[in-house]
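ping. complex inputs:
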Amino acid sequence: MAKHTLIAYVEDVPGVLNRIASLFRRRNFNIDSLTVGRTEQPGVSRLTVVVEATEHGARLVEANLYKLVNVLRVDDLTHKDALMRELGLVKVTVTPNTRAQVLQLVDVFRARVVDVDELSIVIEVTGTPDKIGKFELVLRPYGITEMVRTGSVAMARGHETMSANPPLVPAVLAPDHAHDSGISMSV
Amino acid sequence: MKLTGAEIIWECLIREGVDVVFGYPGGAILPAYDAMTKYPQVHHVLVRHEQGATHMADGYARASGKVGVAIATSGPGATNMVTGIATAMMDSSPIVCITGQVGSKAIGTDAFQETDVTGVTIPVTKHNYLVTKPDDIARAIREAFYIAKSGRPGPVLVDITKDAQQLSCEFDWESAAPKLPGYRPDLRALPSEYQKALELINTAKRPLILAGQGILKSGATAEVLKLAQNANIPIAVTLLGLGVIPASCEHNLGMMGMHGEAWVNEAIQQADLLIALGMRFDDRVTGNLKTYAQNAKKIHVEIDPSEVNKNVPVDVALIGDLREILEELLPSVKKTTHPEWWATINLGKGDAAVRDIQALPDSGHLYAAHVINDLCHFTQTLKKDTIVVTDVGQHQMWEAQYFRHEKPRSLITSGGLGTMGFALPAAIGAKFACPEKDVWVVVGDGGFQMTSCELATAEQEGIKVNVAIINNSFLGMVRQWQEFFYDKRYAATPITGPDFVKLAEAYRLKGLRCNKRSDVKSTVEKALAAKETVVIDFVVEKEDTVFPMVPAGAALDKMIRRPKQDVMLESGSDKDWEMPSSTLPNVFAEAKAEAVALNSRGKKAAKPAKPAKVTKPAKPAKTPARKAVASKSAKSNRR
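pong. complex structure:
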């Protein structure tokens, strides 16, 4: 199992997010994060989904996403040269003694302070999900009172356009296949 | 042309070629029903339960190849449809369901009879729509029909708010053409895949075609037969593929899977090439995936890319329309005969002729298999086409084994979802699609009671279907599982029912009863002679068992074989089957452990070891003669 980053262009119609969420639940796939937003084309939204899946499972997700009528195209960026970015807002408690230290960390992580008062600082940090995880780690000793992450958005580098055809699901059985336990999973 | 939303619904249906709809009125769909009076060219069939409406639309679609239409109101009307929609989804049946919805301003307020029907049906529809404006109705309905019947067919639901039905707008059919940029029903296989497929087919020593319902959907029977004949390839069919390949076709081995004949499953396990045509390797067909057809390369011809490599990894995937793909392949398929392969298969068939129960003398007992066999033989002597609609359970499997279907669309059954209660309403739908054909319902006494209210629909519509209830006073298939896997603890499987003859008469229909084999033919004749719907109560042996059987999760060729024939004749029942000697899946161990745990929990509870005795009917005495017969034939009979 590994994290797979899929992006999907979908028609911006009511219920489309519900359809996608329902698909993941129905086919028993775990969503790590899911973000949706507008794109350069009016009426088209773009979705970035990070799923915990095997390679075989990821292709099944992709093929099933294509089956949804409102999904225009899908791409798996996992094995491509791609940019992954996430934004986090972190509220940290500070004292006059620790404020300078926190500000130094903000500087190291190229984050920004967006709000300050006598007891806390709100920091905006962007970067890969890994980087934000690290940032959280180093701030934790100072006391994080509130934190929110947007989930990854992703984009392939370079000028290649995405394929608009459903993928062929590769011919490998997932190692954790239902029949491995010896108990029949079908009724 | 300015029309109300309700009128637009009917205008669209008529333009889509709909002449009959199955429905049930209610508050939120009332405007549509009111407008219906202006469109007498569409016949409305009033059902007795909305589930029946969806099954009827499904049966109509499967019998005709056209799109079936079901209508219901909001809330309970729509939720009642869910079972029928899921049935159509699993068996790729094109139906369009139109439901009323509360007014658009009331959505989300928990208004009377409000349900989020589009939300509820997302997982069981191919696509669905919530329409809140009259301007959007035409396009939604056009797209619904297009999506339902194109690609891999399936159910589509259109939920229309009451105000959208009441308000008026300009109706323009042309500008409401489907705009579906993300929908790709017409995928094509890569040229390189064709080459690979041909290489495999032309070099295979033991090829086997797995024929599924996709052949019917694509209308590719002739092409499949040509492929089989050119390269002399045997064909195994799925349950929904029955009839797609004529039973009399010399290449047709019969049904595969859990209750498929032994030689068919053995052929699959021994094959070196499986050519899967329009089938999806369901668990009922494959048994244990780890041991499934391990010697075989696999070619999968399938229109739905998400089915490829889902259960069984394949070597070549040809995605697209089956007929087009076969047309492309056929000219390059080499002529071969595979004599050794056929010899192996014929050896496996062995004593098949001996086991044709039609050939057996009348012992006085009536078995379901007799009823179905006789029904098959008798209806085939008639000049008329017959459609058989089966429910789910033992009778369904017996029908699949003993009724020889020669034509596509002559069997309609709920395969994927296994919906009890499907048969009667689906048969009514099929009769509306094919009024010139005889329609037979083969149904168990359990499943029949789930939707028997639709007898009233048949009566009100004045249509004739022939209902053969295979009445064994048990939920037979579940009882069979309990017999095999749960030490015969018959929990909740004995079932009673009304007097089915009187029930039919109460609906002003004809009721008949038959409990002797010698009466089967005359009863069937009487039923066919009657003008109205006839319900026949075939009272059969109670503890009869469907053989062979691959236990769920076991390897495909490790099946519980038919008991010796003469023993079956004697008792009809359950005594002489043997579990396969190989290791079986843990269900057995589990069941045992469960039983032990149950038994040891509190000594005061009665030991539930053999509660079956109580419910067991009196049986013919176990005569020494029977045993003698059994042992005598033990040597000569492999199964």
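Chain A has a mean pLDDT of 88.
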